[in-house]
Design goal:
It is an enzyme of class 3 (hydrolase). It comes from Muraenolepis orangiensis. About 40% of the residues lie in helices and about 15% in strands. The chain has one domain: 3-Layer(aba) Sandwich (Rossmann fold), CATH 3.40.50. It is globular, with a radius of gyration of 17 Å. The chain starts with a strand and ends with a helix. It has eight helices and seven strands. A seven-stranded mixed β-sheet has the order 1-3-2-4-5-6-7, with helices on both faces. The longest helix is centred in the C-terminal third of the chain and has 22 residues.
Length: about 250
């Protein structure tokens, strides 16, 4: 499991686990650090995908099925131990949904809460008609990356860093842009679903996520662009919100 998961703060007595999925091109460090910010009731598992960090020499995944299969194989024993929730931003939101769907269908397991951020539902018209950024030239891609915010300008101006960073980002975008999911004919899950987004981000069809679950649906808009969640103020809002709802979920679970 350690190959796939970063956990900076082990909490054997935690009442619940939060499994976090990176944005496109992202590593596990940002969310793994969250483990030190949550109190002792929540243990954070941050997913580490091939082609980055300690897995830098591994080939990138080519499709969503590969991501889902690896995550479930690595995490299944842990997910059976205690209540868990999933959190994902952008590409990570799609992976969170795909993992939750597969866990329910294959193993009858369901998160106590699904936290989705910065992404339209995969079956929404807005998502389906979105341009395929992974097919842009590097120059066009960098212009787009600069326009959505959240990436330090010094990184975008450093050819050596870009040489390492762009392949992972494009590989993840290729996965999500080619991920197909039919609109649910009925709820797939029964857990609460919360969607977050930056007020200054490009519009996303967040309301379409309502279709995936019969549980409560909540929408929270926070100040900022696509990477609003990197802002310390917003990060505290997210952590406080997740903590409150997971502790409540634990009471319901019991």
């Amino acid at each position: 499991m350690d190959k796939v998961i970063s956990c900076f703060s082990r909490k054997p007595e935690a009442v619940a686990r939060l499994v976090c999925f990176p944005w496109a091109g992202g590593g596990s460090i940002h969310y793994a650090r969250w483990g030190r910010l949550f109190d002792g009731s929540i243990e954070v598992y941050s997913v580490k995908l091939p082609g980055r960090e300690s897995r830098a020499k591994e080939l990138f995944f080519q499709n969503m099925q590969q991501v889902v299969d690896e995550v479930i194989q690595a995490l299944l024993p842990s997910l059976k131990e205690k209540p868990f929730a999933l959190f994902g931003h952008s590409f990570g939101a799609m992976v969170s949904f795909a993992v939750a769907d597969a866990l329910k269908r294959r193993h009858g397991l369901e998160p106590v809460h699904l936290f989705l951020s910065g992404a339209s539902a995969p079956y929404s018209e807005m998502r389906i008609s979105a341009p395929k950024r992974s097919e842009l030239t590097d120059e066009e891609f960098l212009q787009w990356l600069s326009s959505i915010g959240g990436t330090p300008p010094e990184l975008l101006a450093n050819p050596e860093v870009l040489r390492l960073f762009l392949p992972a980002l494009k590989a993840d975008l290729h996965i999500v842009e080619n991920y197909r999911c039919n609109k649910p004919t009925g709820p797939l899950l029964s857990c609460p679903v919360t969607c977050f987004d930056g007020k200054q981000d490009v519009p996303h069809d967040l309301q379409a996520w309502k279709e995936i679950s019969s549980g409560d649906f909540t929408l929270r808009m926070l100040d900022g662009d696509h990477f609003y969640l990197k802002d310390p103020v917003n990060e505290k809002v997210l952590i406080d919100f997740v903590t409150k709802h997971l502790e409540t979920s634990e009471m319901d679970y019991l």
